[in-house]
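sry for the spam today, last one i promise. struct tokens for design, 505 residues
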């Protein structure tokens, strides 16, 4: 199928995301011949740059962040990049932008299809679409216009509702693509494929056989250069409201009627709608927050969160969060979900763990006290793959049981590189496929679900924000949080099959 020609406009083109993720992802599509020949990219931001300067910056960025092993086409690709300076809140700037777009359209013989990617500070997510609409840059008479919005979608429920209304005033829902880059990860999409393309998992995927579900997304890095943004956000807003709840949804959703976007997104939404509201009186029991402290990791001194650039010295922002909750529907009634995420933990791992119930009766020694011997670990990153843990007889006399691993690694599947999340999502937005983009209803439900925790934490300073030394698995009482329910966290290591609190780094 021939692809429509289009212009790709990136707002915030002088920023970090553009050079680290967006341009490398687009370059990767380019070298795979997945873009039309007259592909044109216009970078836009406040910084004054010429086309040539922008090209040079992106060339340097590609030398560093190129995700393919092809460097031969960087110069050719750079020739397709252009740049315009724009004051985001100034209407006249948008008229000039239109003139520039028309001139690029004519010079490069492109259709009037345009994708606007907002890679700007979130405060501009309302302003830019509004100004674009005022200047009629959302008009689809001569070609489609799509708007891609990065997270965070709002700061809380009120602001998310406001943003939703603001966008829908001038744009149609099918023009809006809300990015959650986790949905672009191959392994996240594979959650659905593993569940719904196999007959063996689905019969067990319910409260009858599953004891609990655990989802971990740990990072070894701190806030890096993003202290200013992060300090106003925190782990709950930055990771749980979007990425982790999307993982919950894909793990818990019902089989969609078809693989069409609407059918899949409807099932995802139903999970969000079934999250049991968190009672404000229970927040102390079901939510745990922590903040990383300075420490020495592998001989290197690491700053505590409050000493990071852009962070307030008395900051109460959480860099670690653990939550316990339920999904009130037929499939999941009574099954607890435990999720946790944090910065400056021992390793960077994201995984979903299905803990199956033990057998109704223990026949063999070694089998007792094994509340979740059978685990299915769906590893999102790194060492992407699937691990099944089950009991095996230890060779020799008697019937001694030992837990063993059966593992599949994506790396063994094919030589093919796993495309980056941005590469997949950008390609889908070009094709006009919204399956892997969040709908506003989902995001609104996610905010509704988390508001009690955010409000109780905000209004009750006495609720502890536990410090944890960088490089450890979070606050000391993070274990009690789950052990009191008769289970424990899995402590993943970088290698899928390994686990333990002190993995080799
Ligand atoms: C981003 C968060 O959305 O996801 C970051 O803002 C976080 O704080 C990042 O580090 C994690 O993404 P990934 O793909 O590295 O797991």
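last one done:
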């Amino acid at each position: 199928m021939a692809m429509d020609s289009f212009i790709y406009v990136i707002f915030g083109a002088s920023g970090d995301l553009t050079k680290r993720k967006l341009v490398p992802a687009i370059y990767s599509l380019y070298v795979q011949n997945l873009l039309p020949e007259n592909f044109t990219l216009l970078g836009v931001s406040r910084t004054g740059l010429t086309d040539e300067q922008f090209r040079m910056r992106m060339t340097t960025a590609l030398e560093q962040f190129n995700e393919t092993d092809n460097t031969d086409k960087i110069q050719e690709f750079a020739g397709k990049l252009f740049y315009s300076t724009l004051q985001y809140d100034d209407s006249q700037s948008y008229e000039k932008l239109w003139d520039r777009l028309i001139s690029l359209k004519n010079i490069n013989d492109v259709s009037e299809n345009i994708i606007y990617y907002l890679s700007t500070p979130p405060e501009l997510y309302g302003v830019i679409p509004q100004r674009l609409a005022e200047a009629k840059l959302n008009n689809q008479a001569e070609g489609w216009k799509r708007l891609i919005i990065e997270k965070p979608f709002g700061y809380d429920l009120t602001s998310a509702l406001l943003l939703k209304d603001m966008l829908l005033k001038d744009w149609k829902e099918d023009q809006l693509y809300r990015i959650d880059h986790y949905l672009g990860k191959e392994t996240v999409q594979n959650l659905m494929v593993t569940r719904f393309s196999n007959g063996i998992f689905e019969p067990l995927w319910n409260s009858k056989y599953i004891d609990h579900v655990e989802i971990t997304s740990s990072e070894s890095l701190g806030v890096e250069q993003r202290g200013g943004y992060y300090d106003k956000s925190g782990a709950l807003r930055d990771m749980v409201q979007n990425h982790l709840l999307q993982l919950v949804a894909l793990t818990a959703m019902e089989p969609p009627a078809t693989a069409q976007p609407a059918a899949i997104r409807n099932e995802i939404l139903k999970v969000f709608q079934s999250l049991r509201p968190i009672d404000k009186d229970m927040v102390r029991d079901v939510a745990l927050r922590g903040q990383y402290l300075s420490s020495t990791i592998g001989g290197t001194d690491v700053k505590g969160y409050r000493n990071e650039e852009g962070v307030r010295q008395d900051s109460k922002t959480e860099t670690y969060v653990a939550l316990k909750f339920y999904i009130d529907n037929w499939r999941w009634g009574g099954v607890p979900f435990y999720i946790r995420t944090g910065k400056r933990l021992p390793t960077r791992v994201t995984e979903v763990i299905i803990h199956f119930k033990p057998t109704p009766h223990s026949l063999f020694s070694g089998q007792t006290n094994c509340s979740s011997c059978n685990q299915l670990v769906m590893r999102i990153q790194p060492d992407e793959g699937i691990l099944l843990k089950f009991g095996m007889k230890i060779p020799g006399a008697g019937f001694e049981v030992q837990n063993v691993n059966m593992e599949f690694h994506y790396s063994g599947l094919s030589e093919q590189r796993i495309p980056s999340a941005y590469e997949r999502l950008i390609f889908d937005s070009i094709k006009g496929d919204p399956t892997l983009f969040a709908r506003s209803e989902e995001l609104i439900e996610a905010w509704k679900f988390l508001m009690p925790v955010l409000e109780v934490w905000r209004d009750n300073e006495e609720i502890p924000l536990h410090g944890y030394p960088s490089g450890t698995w979070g606050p000391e009482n993070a274990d009690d949080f789950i052990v009191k329910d008769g289970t424990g966290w899995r402590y993943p290591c970088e290698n899928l099959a390994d686990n333990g609190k002190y993995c080799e780094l």
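The CA atoms of residues 210 and 356 lie 4 Å apart. ok im logging off now
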